[in-house]
What does this fold into?
Amino acid sequence: MQIEILNLDKHYGAYHALRDVTVQIPKGQFVALVGPSGCGKSTLLRSIAGLETITSGTLKIEGEIVNDLPPRKRDVAMVFQSYALYPHMSVAENMTYSLRIQGVSKADALKRAREVAEVTGLTDLLDRRPRDLSGGQRQRVAMGRAIVREPKAFLFDEPLSNLDAALRVHMRTEVRALHDRLGATSVYVTHDQIEAMTMADHVVVMRQGVIEQQGAPMELYDRPANKFVAGFIGSPAMNFVDGKIGEDGHSVTLALPNTPVIPLSRKAEAGRNVTVGMRPEHLSLDANDGQIEVAIRSVESTGSMAYYTTRTDPELMLVEQGRNRFRTGDTARLRIAPENVQLFDRKTDIAI
Amino acid sequence: MKRLFISISDGKGFDILLVGLAMFFLLALAGIPLLYNVLMSFQEVDMFTLGSFIRPWAGLDNYRYIFAQPEFWLVMKNTALFVFCSMAGQFVLGFGLAIFFQQNFWGASTIRGLFLVSWVMPGLVVGGIWSFILAGDYGVLNAILEGLGIIDEPVFWKSDPDLAIWAVIIANIWLGLAFNMLLLSVGLAAIPRDLYEAAELDGATAWQRFRTITLPMMRSTIGAVLALGLIGTLQQFDLFPAMTEGGPANTSSVTQYWAWQMSFKQYDFARGATISMLMLVFVFMAAIVYVRSTRGEVRG
Ligand SMILES: Nc1ncnc2c1ncn2[C@@H]1O[C@H](COP(=O)(O)OP(=O)(O)OP(=O)(O)O)[C@@H](O)[C@H]1O
Ligand SMILES: [Mg+2]
It folds into this structure.
């Protein structure tokens, strides 16, 4: 294990910011920490870096307990959301700062910076000051500065959130490619679940200081442990409808107009109150075997995808490939794919 | 007329108006008196020609006279000592305190605010208080030093020729400390925290962070503090009459006090003006430091 976080707790005074957090990160893995704002992602990342002291628990890097080591002795590199470039130093000086601190000769440090600049596309910018760079270029410098050090782990705190949408999408693949090329171990904080899903090998979903679920991206997508994870992962978000398990335990009745009954592939406790989760792409319109008649409330089309909401309570969101076949106000038959519905206990929100 | 009005309300005219006002006051209240001072240093001025503008030309006579005075080099040495040590003391202690209060412990900002008190106090009062503290026979400092066993017999801070200038320097350091600390605190607070975090992760020790982040980021603040500190020290006059009166035997006299003695004690205005011209050299140095430090400013 490259990084081991065991039963970590963090208090800010009376506020319990992290509760019993355990994450194991093997060498070479790309781990994403996701969750809503204020859930403690940055706190966890900063704890790994040593910028926050942990209240209890164990933190190991390459097998060594680092609980009491100051940040400078942990040999991890961090890319800040603000980039935190040294404004009074040129790009080259920024990149060689840590090497110079370690006493590497100027010439050697510069040689190393040039190699990294080659990889990150900064070669022509080495003499510039950070303020003379665009946001995307600054982001690269921040990454380059981390890469130069060949640290034991890379820590990213929402590094792409200050970039425009197109560049962000581009940088996702670039960051991941760099990670693979360097054989690095990375922990990546983001509030954007798409970023987490597309980049990471292992996704950790957090809420209010607690890990709700962790695992491979598709595992979280297909088998969310609870309603929160189900709603957080996936875009557009999963639809939730109240339901009740039928007498036979092999069907669920939905609280929608005309109370459709969906067959279940596995048995559930008869008569139990549940929340039924249905992903937008598992609903379709106007199939022959549609269960209910719905009116279309709104249509959004991107050309390649059509997004509909229905005039039902609760409103359902569904997605189809291609151009929109319906307009606002149309009615259509809605089909719910029975094999893909997810059941959650109504009270505890835990997946059944 | 209308065009003029529009220009003044939102065009170039407004800029010119603002610059013009500043320039007018600068000329009227600083420029002209300064030139008059220069002029006077080349004239013969006595009680009878005091009111007139055109007076007998003296050439460099006033300067020769001043240079020939027996106390001239003593006063110059004292001035250099006073300026350098006051500024060094104010700056180093002020920086230390600024960093100390930057640590954000409980009550830090309140205590820092209390330092303003020393700033509010008139120099004469401060001089009076330090006179008491440093008094040879009943002074508090001597009592403490004796109590700690550091000295055996009282030190006559104000009347010992070797120490008198130091007594004033100590008082002046105290007086300028708050100003230095507050200005440097502002500079420190303007450095983003994450730079320190980045440097810490990059392996820098506290000292290395201070040297490679704090100092370069504070360049313009430090320049301003030093320049203003130099001006403040050259302006420092009140402490001298309150503490040593330049004595004993001019061993604690500095140019500004000497110039005052010449002009307003001996009513030799021409030579008083001449001495103050010498101070211009020091002020000029301050201006250069200030301009240079703000020129290459880098922030974020
Ligand atoms: N120094 C502090 N003192 C007290 N509470 C803090 C402190 N730092 C963070 N917190 C609290 O800890 C919680 C977690 O903060 P954290 O910055 O880790 O959130 P986050 O998940 O990174 O959120 P975001 O996505 O908005 O960056 C928040 O509720 C925050 O208010
Ligand atoms: Mg954060």
